[in-house]
Design goal:
Blueprint (H helix, E strand, L loop, with lengths): L1 H16 L1 H13 L4 H12 L3 E5 L6 H12 L3 E5 L6 H5 E6 L4 E6 L6 E5 L6 H13 L1 E4 L2 E4 L5 E6 L12 H5 L1 E6 L5 H12 L12 H12 L5 H15 L13 E3 L3 H17 L7 H12 L4 E2 L1 H5 L4 H11 L4
Parallel strand pairs: 1-8, 1-9, 2-5, 5-8
Antiparallel strand pairs: 3-4, 6-7, 10-11
């Protein structure tokens, strides 16, 4: 009986603490038309301290979205256009000799900010990717012999253009795994596109107001961790992850030769964190199976390696995840 009282208290607290979510979404919607999934994904990434990989054709308001979010949260924002000739120093900064002081001083690069938009991340070579990887994973940057911690909140939103593969480098699996979510964006609907035209032809383009401070986000992250997750839900998450590694144990023999590698333990962690953040956004103090199912595709789609056989049969990771969700027993 005691437990249900606890959940009630948690629920009340989360309801109170998550009141800013509606305001934040309202401000985002002033500028971003449609793209509800993108806004929700950005919020989940922000609240669960995870990075986001976006795949979509150019012109779907990816830059605008993260820029707007930075305005709302009063955070610093920088956009880095990845190109084949980019160097790690262009990202992190470098040592510069000061004649006045007669010594080397550090000039910090664009990574020293709260929100980084890594535009067309697959255009940059491996050295730049590994420099970004340290920043994403360790939340720190090493220039010369000194290591500098990055400011919190720190969020990397990387975009990938799915059409043009000329002159691009496939991202290493280890790096792709560092992204908590991979969101796939689609074109807007007809009425949304009409609205977008109106926005852009108006005398002044709509602007979002600043309603939060970075500290509010850091506090909200602590609250998200308090969202209650039952042991049954934990088992459900583990089952989903294990089904990507050993499909035959879950009655999915047909995928045994389609998957070259399954999701890592990082996927289970991301799935739990994102489920809690999703419950928080829905202003609930506990996680239900629907939360896990709602974010499952975004968390897992980039973490399942497809074999040649899968590619020959046009089987996508999306289909595999959907089948797993149909097959794994829901608590």
């Amino acid at each position: 009986m005691e437990q249900s009282v606890d959940i009630k208290a948690i629920n009340e607290r989360i309801k109170e603490e998550s009141s800013f979510v509606d305001l934040l979404t309202m401000e985002m919607n002033k500028v971003i038309v449609g793209q509800k999934h993108l806004v929700e994904g950005l919020l989940i990434g922000l609240l669960s301290d995870g990075h986001i990989l976006l795949e979509g054709v150019p012109g779907l308001a990816k830059t605008l979205a993260i820029n707007t979010l930075a305005t709302i949260v009063d955070a610093k924002f920088s956009r880095i256009q990845f190109t084949p000739d980019l160097l790690p120093a262009d990202l992190l900064g470098t040592m510069i000799y000061s004649q006045k002081k007669e010594e080397f001083i550090v000039k910090q690069g664009p990574i020293f900010t709260n929100f980084v938009l890594a535009d067309e991340i697959n255009r940059a070579p491996a050295k730049v990717q590994s420099a970004l990887l340290e920043a994403m994973q360790e939340r720190q940057v090493t220039i010369g012999e000194t290591t500098y911690p990055l400011e919190e909140p720190f969020l990397v939103m990387a975009t990938q253009n799915p059409i043009e593969q000329e002159g691009t480098y496939p991202l290493p699996e280890a790096q792709v795994d560092r992204f908590m979510l991979k969101l796939v964006l689609d074109y807007p609907k007809k009425d949304e596109e009409q609205m977008i035209i109106r926005h852009n032809l108006a005398k002044t383009f709509p602007k979002a107001s600043t309603i939060l401070k970075p500290e509010d986000i850091i506090r909200a992250r602590q609250v998200v961790k308090d969202v209650y997750m039952d042991e049954k839900i934990e088992k459900y998450i583990v089952d989903i992850t294990f089904a990507t590694r050993y499909p035959e144990q879950y009655g999915l023999e047909k995928f045994k030769d389609m998957i070259s590698y399954g999701a890592s333990p990082r996927a289970s962690i991301s799935l739990s964190m994102a489920s809690k953040a999703f419950a928080f956004i829905k202003r609930r103090g506990y996680v239900i199976p629907e939360d896990v199912r709602a974010i499952c595709h975004d968390v897992l789609r980039h973490r399942i390696g497809l074999s040649y056989e899968a590619e020959a049969n046009n089987v996508t990771s999306e289909e595999i995840i959907s089948e797993i969700l149909n097959q794994v027993e829901v608590p």
